[in-house]
Amino acid sequence: MLRFVWKFKFPLAGDIVAAGTTIGDVQQQIVQRIEQYIPEPVITVQVLKTDGHTIYVLGKVNRPGAYVMSRPLDVMQALALAGGLAVFAVEDKISILRGGSAGQTALAFDYEQVQYGQQLGQNVRLQPGDVVVVP
Q1: Residues spanned by the domain of 76
Q2: Which pTM was predicted?
Q3: pLDDT class for 83, splitting at 50, 70, 90?
């Protein structure tokens, strides 16, 4: 579920605080505030851009870069978004760098094992800000 982190002004409704709410909550706030002026208003709320859910895939992949997660992704899916491993990638030395309150950690990932259905626990769900490094 996507959550807003800001506020905005809307005609007839005034200030709308979107922090900590869902799209449906924002829509309902606007409807409640303007229905005294417009009977049975139809309001559509849409997210145009999300920047906070970005992961990075770097190193020997075909399309390295930053990728916005519009849905949960695991490591294999992120590598697929990056065009797969490049020719000289070291499949058994891939790392996922993850920052946290206790500092940064590195999770090991062996592409070949996961590809053949082994050690699937390595194929973790990525979190915003994670960096997948393919040497």
Answers
A1: 54-134
A2: 0.64
A3: very high
